[in-house]
């Protein structure tokens, strides 16, 4: 019984949460901004690199494969540290927020690239043939026929990727960006009480749950073949 | 209109077409029959360059389309193709499917493209399905949209690749009727089909292919009533009885 009371006191202290909430919300806003910006650039990177890969442009396509392998095969934490602490030796000095977005975008772009590539390759071969048989160029066929169908199919995995990115953005705390998790840990030290962590977890859930629900709905719709 | 000279096509070690020669004159309907795997579809796909011939020459309206410098997109604008599996664009309405290529390839105005598309959908009997998406059309309706889509480019010739093979039996007729209308207006057609009744009725010429060669060719009546080769006879016996 005493254990339970201690647990509530340490992790679910309403008074502490009330005090730290404004700071946490500020952190949450940063988390959303960093994730959204990185997802945006990640989608552009991923789309471009996936198209380069499926069109099998010789050298470029190999380069993109290296990029995707590199960023999917190493820890994001390491990538963030490299971009922020190692690039200055090459004369590239990025302020922490920029370095953070660059690292997250590059990482997200690698995953998005895979999602788009799988999406493009899942479109029936007959679609490209039908488009080409009407005299469309490869680029036109991609633009009007293949990509629009791909986008619909990749929306669920892309949203999942965004959810993962929101959680992964907490790693930006290593380069002193006060996003949600780092703020929560600072509040924990300040208040000598980890209730701020609980509050942060709830905020993460409030952000991610609608997104995961949305994915479920989109998948249901796709399965039923609705447009 | 279409002339093919000593056409060969290999996929790796697989020799699919072994020296095909044929000619289709303007307004003629050439029907290609034969067992599956005989190279009929590959032959058709070579004519609009969906497959690149390994050797040999193909002429379209006296232009050699197998030359190195040929603009494939232009060739494909001149030859319409209809596929067994429809291949309609699922994210566009029937009208969208038909008007897309005229707009994007021929750079037609939206209004003009829509007018032509509407007229063609009307001609294939789908006036009331203009704003419907492919997933709400029957197989026969889909195939008629696909025919309208190919016609919208105003091609010099049309290729039909087993266009009724994926259809429920009761839907075959509506598609064949549309094709017969095309024959009437003098469209040059190269048709791969298993519909022997149709082949006999509309074919100016019939070609029987087996194992990558033309075994026998001639007028429809000759081939069907008086096949000269044993292989042709065996095939016709198998499909007609």
What oligomeric state best describes the polypeptide chains here? Answer: heterodimer
Count of runs of 4 or more consecutive helical residues of chain B: 9
The total count of strands of chain B amounts to 10
Mean pLDDT of chain A: 92
Question: Span from first to last CA of chain A?
Answer: 55 Å
CATH class of chain A: Mainly Alpha
Q: Classify the helix fraction of chain A into a percent range.
A: over 70%
CATH superfamily of chain A: MetI-like
Strand order of the largest sheet of chain B: 6-7-8-3-9-10
* Model regions low in confidence, pLDDT < 50 over at least 5 residues of chain B: none
What is the total tally of β strands of chain A? 0
Biggest interface, residues from each chain: A-B, 20 and 27 residues
Label the CATH architecture of chain A: Orthogonal Bundle
What is the makeup of the main sheet of chain B? 6 strands, mixed
User: Could you tell me the strand content of chain B as a percent range?
Assistant: 25-35%
The span between the termini of chain B is: 35 Å
Secondary-structure content class of chain B: alpha/beta
Mean pLDDT across the residues of chain B is 93
Number of domains of chain A: 1
Describe the structure in your own words.
The complex is a heterodimer of chains A (227) and B (241). Chain A has 227 residues and is mainly α. Chain A has a single domain, classed as MetI-like (MetI-like fold), CATH 1.10.3720.10. Chain A has nine helices and no strands. Chain A starts with a helix and ends with a helix. Helix content of chain B is 39%, strand content 25%. Chain B is built from nine helices and ten strands. In chain B, α3 (94-104) packs across α4 (110-123), α3 (94-104) packs parallel to α5 and α5 (139-151) runs parallel beside α6 (169-184). Classes of the chains: A mainly alpha (227), B alpha/beta (241).
């Amino acid at each position: 019984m005493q254990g339970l009371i201690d647990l509530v006191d340490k992790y679910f202290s309403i008074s502490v949460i009330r005090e730290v909430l404004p700071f946490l919300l500020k952190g949450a806003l940063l988390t959303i901004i960093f994730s959204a910006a990185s997802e945006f650039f990640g989608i552009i990177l991923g789309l471009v690199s996936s198209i380069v890969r499926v069109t099998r442009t010789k050298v470029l396509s190999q380069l993109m494969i290296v990029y995707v392998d590199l960023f999917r095969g190493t820890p994001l934490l390491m990538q963030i540290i490299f971009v922020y602490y190692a690039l200055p030796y090459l004369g590239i000095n990025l302020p922490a927020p920029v370095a953070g977005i660059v690292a997250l975008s590059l990482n997200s772009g690698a995953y998005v690239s895979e999602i788009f590539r799988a999406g493009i390759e899942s479109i029936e071969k007959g679609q490209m043939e039908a488009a080409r048989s009407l005299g469309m160029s490869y680029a036109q066929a991609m633009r009007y026929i293949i990509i629009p169908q791909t986008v619909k199919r990749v929306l669920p995995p892309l949203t999942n990727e965004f959810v993962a990115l929101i959680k992964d953005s907490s790693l930006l705390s290593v380069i002193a960006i006060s996003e949600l998790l780092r703020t929560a840990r600072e509040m924990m030290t300040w208040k000598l009480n980890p209730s701020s962590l609980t509050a942060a977890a709830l905020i993460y859930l409030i952000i991610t749950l609608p997104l995961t629900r949305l994915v479920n709905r989109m998948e249901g719709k796709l399965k039923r073949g609705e447009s | 209109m279409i002339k093919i000279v000593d056409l060969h096509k290999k996929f790796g070690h697989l020799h699919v077409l072994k020296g095909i020669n044929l000619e289709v004159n303007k307004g003629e309907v050439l029907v290609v029959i034969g067992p599956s795997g005989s190279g009929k579809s590959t032959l058709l796909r070579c004519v609009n360059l969906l497959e690149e011939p390994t050797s040999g020459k193909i002429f379209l309206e006296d232009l050699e389309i197998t030359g190195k410098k040929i603009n494939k997109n232009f060739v494909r604008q001149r030859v319409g193709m209809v596929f067994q599996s429809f291949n309609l664009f699922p994210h566009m309405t029937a009208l969208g499917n038909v008007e897309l290529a005229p707009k994007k390839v021929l750079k037609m105005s939206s209004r003009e493209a829509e007018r032509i598309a509407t007229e063609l959908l009307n001609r294939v009997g789908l006036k009331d399905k203009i704003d419907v998406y492919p997933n709400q059309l029957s197989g026969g309706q889909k195939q008629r949209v696909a025919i309208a889509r190919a016609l919208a480019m105003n091609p010099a010739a049309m290729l039909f690749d087993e266009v009724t093979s994926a259809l429920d039996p009761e839907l075959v007729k509506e598609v064949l009727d549309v094709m017969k209308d095309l024959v009437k207006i003098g469209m040059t057609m190269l048709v791969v089909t298993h519909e022997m009744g149709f082949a006999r009725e509309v074919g100016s010429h019939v070609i029987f292919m087996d194992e990558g060669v033309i075994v026998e060719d001639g007028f429809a009546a000759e081939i069907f009533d008086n096949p000269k080769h044993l292989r042709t006879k065996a095939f016709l016996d198998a499909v007609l009885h």
